[in-house]
Structure formats: C-alpha cells, structure tokens
Amino acid sequence: MKEVYINKISKYLPNRPISNDEMEEKLGIINGKTSKGRRIVLRNNQIKTRYYAIDDNGNITHNNAQLAKEAIMGLCDDDFKIEDIQLLSCGTSSPDQMLPSHAAMVHGFLKNGNIEINSPSGACCSGMNALKYGYLSVKSGQTENAVCTGSERASTWIKSQIFEDELKYLETLEDNPILAFNKDFLRWMLSDGAGAFLLENIPKGNNALKIEWMEGYSYAHEMEACMYAGGDKMEDGFLKPWSEYPSHEWSKKSIFAIKQDVKLLGENILVKGVDSLKKAIEKHNVKPENIDYYLPHISSYYFKDNLYKEMVAQGVEIPWENWFMNLSKVGNVGAGSIYIMLEELVNSGKLKKGETILLSVPESARFSYAYALLTVC
C-alpha cells in the first residue's frame, strides 16, 4: 500500500459575495411576498455572505460541472498539467442533470484525454466519498494521482420560479397560500461553489497533508429521509419518487425542489453525529484533545454550541480553540464545504509540521457521516 498526500488544494467561488439583504433579490420573491422565515433562519445560521452562480443582471454564469472544472484548473500549473490527471472523482448534491454523471460532465469540460471517472451520489458526504475513492485508488497503487472535488450549484434549485406553479395551485385551494417551511428553510441556507484536491503518492510542496485514514457511517437503517429532492415524503415516512407521480403534479407539488424535515434534523443530526465521531476516533485510538484542528461542516452556527455539548456528554470533547470554520463567509456549499474550509486553513499560514486535522462531514439526507484524519508534512 502507498501513502496518500493532499499536495494541492483549490477553490472556486463564483461572482461576488452576496449579503443577507441581497438574497431575496437574487433568488426571487415568492408570490409577491417576502419570506417570513428568512430573517429567523439567517439569525440562527449566522451566515453573513455567500456566493451564487448568478450575476448582477440575473444571468446564470456557471453550471455545477463548470464550477468544479474551474476549481480543478486552480490545481494545474507547470508542474502538474491537466493532462496529468489519472483519476477524476467528483461529488455533489446538485448535479446539473440525472444523466450523464456529474464527473462525466466535468471531464467533458476538461477535455484532457482518457481517464477514469467516478461520481458518488448523495448530499454533503458525496464530496468526502469522492475523496475516499481517490484516496483508495492512490493507496492501492491503481493510480499515482487523483483529483477529487466537491461542488454545488444550489441557487437554481431554490429560485422563486421553482415554486410558482405550486403557489398558483394552492391559490385555488385556500385564501392565503404560503410556501411550506420545509422548502423555504433551505432557500436561506445553501450556496454555490467548488473545491478540489490533488492526491499523489509522494508529498510535494510546503503544505502537503498525509491522509492517515477515512471512515464513513450511515444511519439509514434506523432513520427516515430528512433532506430530499425529486420525491415527496408520505405521513409514514416513505419517500415516494418523482417517477411515481403523473407529470402534471411535478410542478404543483414542487417535487424537484430540495426539502428539509426540520424537526427530524434537530432531533437527530447532532446525536448521531457525535456517536459516529466517537466510533471513528476510538477505532483509530485518537484522543480528541490531541486533534490540533477540527473542521466540522455544519449547516448553521445554530448547531455549534449544541454539538460541543453533545461531545462533552458522549466523552469526546474537542477543545473550542481547536475548531476552524468559515461558514459565515462562504455559506453552506454542501459537498464542497469541507474542501473550501481546508483550503482556507492551509493558506492561513497557521499549520505546523506534525499537526493533525480532523475533517468531519454530516449529511442529513438520511443521516450519514464521513471523517478523515490528516497530518501536516
């Protein structure tokens, strides 16, 4: 088995940062009324700015695959050219289409010859699953390098036009139609962007990070869907897919909109998260107090204090001073968040040889969690 190193990290955030007061202008006002939930959600998540692949004239500037391609180009220079990529592994929650795969579309934009591609599906953990595929490929000697990405273009999934037909339909049923909170909630949470890692089997440069191990855990065997798109949840928790609805109901029910069961999220995301964290660090005999940098992907600062309290309750407390996050500046970029977070930490100049970094990514879709321990070389 080979050792595996993250030798380069790149990010791509489209256009300019968007403030809280500009969000509704960018995404559109639904049914002529400003959202009642917007200020509550923003007050809780404490995100100040985020990025959208939408310019100031309302034009779409990039699709998801193009965002990932731009992040990958940031890895390339005279020492590592785009034609040197042996494996491309791309994760996202918001692919541009159901088929072809996301990685195939990214490869199509790169135009860099025959390479192996991989497209893990899912939500936030898809970015970590993309990383693990590349990690295992390089570790096993199948390839000498791998480029892994996490990216999202959520903005077009949450624009007002997605919900217009549903609101028109509701107007025929009631006097005061409003968008359900499980759909409105995510409009003020999600952001666009992409991050990319270059993995190689020897360390290079001044900021190489050795991947010590990666672990993943799913709780789908005991939990129903919490965040979903392309279907609707029945009262018994069964997720009915879009393909079982007549086409005229797709827009009436906003079937393809992304939705969040907020109650289920609040009751389980932290408890299951710390349970999985405990499993991972105990398996590898890691003491939480010895982790120099803890990078938790959280969707909202609302969860930060309670995550810490749950760590204390389960005996895996990581000291506050070792936490590193950039959610307030870049927003929740889903599968891309952990890439963008690590890029900022590496470029901060803070890292010292021998320090450890724990990447922690939850996924509320049906409660999955992924972890990676890195050492600064």
Automatic annotation (TrEMBL):
<dbReference type="Pfam" id="PF08541">
    <property type="entry name" value="ACP_syn_III_C"/>
</dbReference>
<dbReference type="InterPro" id="IPR013747">
    <property type="entry name" value="ACP_syn_III_C"/>
</dbReference>
<dbReference type="Pfam" id="PF00109">
    <property type="entry name" value="ketoacyl-synt"/>
</dbReference>
<keyword id="KW-0808">Transferase</keyword>
<protein>
    <submittedName>
        <fullName>Beta-ketoacyl-ACP synthase III</fullName>
    </submittedName>
</protein>
<feature type="domain" description="Beta-ketoacyl synthase-like N-terminal">
    <location>
        <begin position="120"/>
        <end position="201"/>
    </location>
</feature>
<dbReference type="InterPro" id="IPR016039">
    <property type="entry name" value="Thiolase-like"/>
</dbReference>
<feature type="domain" description="Beta-ketoacyl-[acyl-carrier-protein] synthase III C-terminal">
    <location>
        <begin position="282"/>
        <end position="360"/>
    </location>
</feature>
<keyword id="KW-0012">Acyltransferase</keyword>
<dbReference type="InterPro" id="IPR014030">
    <property type="entry name" value="Ketoacyl_synth_N"/>
</dbReference>
